[in-house]
């Protein structure tokens, strides 16, 4: 019943064919162009496209800040690209900052950087970190922030690493090292929008006893995270 009814309805437009050829087609087209929904639809499309482009830009900014954005209190002494300490592999995303100790009491940041650089020749192991913080609080950057460093095993692919020097085998940082660590981690948190639970010890990532003092003294690590939450950069005040 309905089929025959719709069949009948379909016949009706067909009978219009002769009329369309006499200008009806043009009338119909003009009517479509002046549809009240067309302009808002186009505008919505343009706005969505602009938002998408902006979103991608923001994502890219979060992933890898330009090297020029690194503050002047960081000394850049980037390693040469080599298979052992700076493979040149892109760091695609940053989901955390990992704190380490160098494990070699009394050595300076510069000495540890030289060790990383020397691996290119000796090839004795794979090791490096994005940053080294020395006993006097000096900060050296060894690897660009948009490349991976060899520091945290399986988390190399999505974290930034900081190695801290220490005066003795116990591994506690000097006050100057500690203060620079706060400043550097705080800056990285702002650059990558990381919460304080994304600031971890090497131990939290792989179970390695690093940074030793802050593994053996969990309360000292908790204190560091508290200090980080309360931190405001002297240059920002
Ligand atoms: Zn470590």
Automatic annotation (TrEMBL):
<keyword id="KW-0378">Hydrolase</keyword>
<keyword id="KW-0472">Membrane</keyword>
<dbReference type="InterPro" id="IPR036505">
    <property type="entry name" value="Amidase/PGRP_sf"/>
</dbReference>
<feature type="region of interest" description="Disordered">
    <location>
        <begin position="1"/>
        <end position="31"/>
    </location>
</feature>
<keyword id="KW-0961">Cell wall biogenesis/degradation</keyword>
<feature type="domain" description="N-acetylmuramoyl-L-alanine amidase">
    <location>
        <begin position="84"/>
        <end position="219"/>
    </location>
</feature>
<feature type="transmembrane region" description="Helical">
    <location>
        <begin position="39"/>
        <end position="60"/>
    </location>
</feature>
<dbReference type="GO" id="GO:0008745">
    <property type="term" value="F:N-acetylmuramoyl-L-alanine amidase activity"/>
</dbReference>
<keyword id="KW-0812">Transmembrane</keyword>
<dbReference type="GO" id="GO:0009254">
    <property type="term" value="P:peptidoglycan turnover"/>
</dbReference>
<dbReference type="Pfam" id="PF01510">
    <property type="entry name" value="Amidase_2"/>
</dbReference>
<feature type="compositionally biased region" description="Basic residues">
    <location>
        <begin position="20"/>
        <end position="31"/>
    </location>
</feature>
<keyword id="KW-1133">Transmembrane helix</keyword>
<dbReference type="GO" id="GO:0071555">
    <property type="term" value="P:cell wall organization"/>
</dbReference>
<protein>
    <recommendedName>
        <fullName>N-acetylmuramoyl-L-alanine amidase</fullName>
        <ecNumber>3.5.1.28</ecNumber>
    </recommendedName>
</protein>
<dbReference type="InterPro" id="IPR051206">
    <property type="entry name" value="NAMLAA_amidase_2"/>
</dbReference>
<dbReference type="GO" id="GO:0009253">
    <property type="term" value="P:peptidoglycan catabolic process"/>
</dbReference>
<dbReference type="InterPro" id="IPR002502">
    <property type="entry name" value="Amidase_domain"/>
</dbReference>
């Amino acid at each position: 019943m309905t089929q025959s009814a719709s069949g009948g309805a379909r016949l009706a437009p067909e009978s219009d064919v002769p009329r369309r050829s006499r200008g009806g087609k043009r009338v119909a087209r003009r009517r479509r162009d002046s549809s009240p929904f067309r302009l808002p639809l186009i505008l919505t499309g343009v706005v969505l496209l602009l938002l998408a482009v902006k979103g991608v830009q923001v994502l890219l900014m979060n992933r890898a800040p330009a090297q020029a954005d690194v503050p002047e209190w960081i000394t850049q002494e980037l390693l040469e690209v080599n298979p052992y300490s700076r493979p040149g592999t892109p760091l695609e995303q940053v989901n955390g900052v990992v704190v380490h100790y160098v494990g070699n009491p009394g050595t300076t940041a510069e000495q540890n950087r030289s060790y990383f650089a020397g691996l290119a020749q000796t090839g004795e192991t794979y090791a490096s970190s994005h940053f080294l913080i020395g006993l006097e609080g000096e900060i050296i950057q060894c690897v660009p922030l948009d490349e991976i460093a060899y520091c945290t095993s399986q988390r190399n692919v999505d974290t930034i690493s900081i190695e801290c020097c220490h005066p003795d085998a116990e591994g506690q940082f000097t006050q100057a090292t500690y203060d620079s660590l706060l400043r550097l981690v705080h800056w990285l948190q702002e650059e990558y929008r990381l919460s304080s639970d994304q600031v971890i010890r090497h131990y939290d990532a792989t179970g390695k006893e690093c940074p030793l003092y802050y593994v053996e003294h969990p309360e000292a690590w908790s204190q560091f995270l508290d200090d980080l939450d309360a931190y405001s950069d002297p240059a920002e005040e």
